[in-house]
Amino acid sequence: MIDGTRADSARRRDLLERIHVAASTPAQDGRIAAVGRASLQTDLSNALEADKRLTARIRQLERRLSPQLGESVRAESGLGSPVDIDQLQRQIALLEQNLAETQSELDERTEELDAARAANRELTRSVNRPQ
């Protein structure tokens, strides 16, 4: 793409130079200039505006094409696997469910441990009481 832009730029400079030479060269005796300076400047201005529009369109197309080419190259190279968001969301849901179940089991066992400790304290007190 850069080489094409350089070539276009060189062509524009060449065209501009030829326009300036033609504009500064007087008409030959008996001949009327076919193109006036004002019309050449208008044509040049129109050409420059068209060039700006085309350059902007090329950049827009390059921005759209770049991600597609990147995805294509990545897929063809075999580097990495595509991210499956639905699969990741299902895995997150399963892990959250597993976490909730594990937390519930932990809470139950903590209650059982607290009850066992309380019972142990009562037994220790009853054994240590004078009779």
Distance between the termini: 102 Å
Strand content: under 5%
Shape: rod-shaped
Helix content: over 70%
Gyration radius, to the nearest Å?
Answer: 41 Å
Number of strands: 0
Structural class assignment: mainly alpha
Describe the model:
This protein is an all-alpha fold. Helix content is 82%, strand content 0%. The chain contains 3 helices and no strands. The chain has helices at 2-24, 37-77, 85-128. The longest helix is centred in the last third of the chain and has 44 residues, at 85-128. The protein is rod-shaped and about 145 Å long. The chain starts with a helix and ends with a helix.
Q: Which SSEs are present, and which pair or pack?
A:
Layout: H1 2-24, H2 37-77, H3 85-128
Could you list some keywords that capture this structure?
about 130 residues; mainly alpha
